[in-house]
Amino acid sequence: MSVRRSGPWMQAVDERILEHLAESRWASPTTMTAVLPSASSRRRIWDRCRLLSEAGLIGPLWPGTRMYEITTSGQLYLDGELNTHDVPAPGPVRVGPPPKKEERPCYTLG
């Protein structure tokens, strides 16, 4: 049995969401709220699903829907084969003001 290694951005409810999706094939935040007693609200489940989706561990069944399924990466994490320390934290990457013009990369079309 492999040990799961969660990234610092993950919370305990994230594992419950992934486990539920692995068992159920797909679910909405509303249905997950009913079956995950450790989650405090549908809003919290929705927020965590959004972050897990941004991280690539779950994904919407169809674009624009709030029904999610586990991805291959999510299943690899549950199986202990993906260390989410290696998965970039969801959300903005840069903190602070934008770089000055002279610091920005310059790309040319060729």
Automatic annotation (TrEMBL):
Residues 99-110 have a biased composition (Basic and acidic residues). Residues 89-98 have a biased composition (Pro residues). InterPro entries: WH-like_DNA-bd_sf. Residues 88-110 are annotated as: Disordered. This is PhiH1 repressor. It comes from Halarchaeum nitratireducens. The lineage of its organism: Archaea, Methanobacteriati, Methanobacteriota, Stenosarchaea group, Halobacteria.
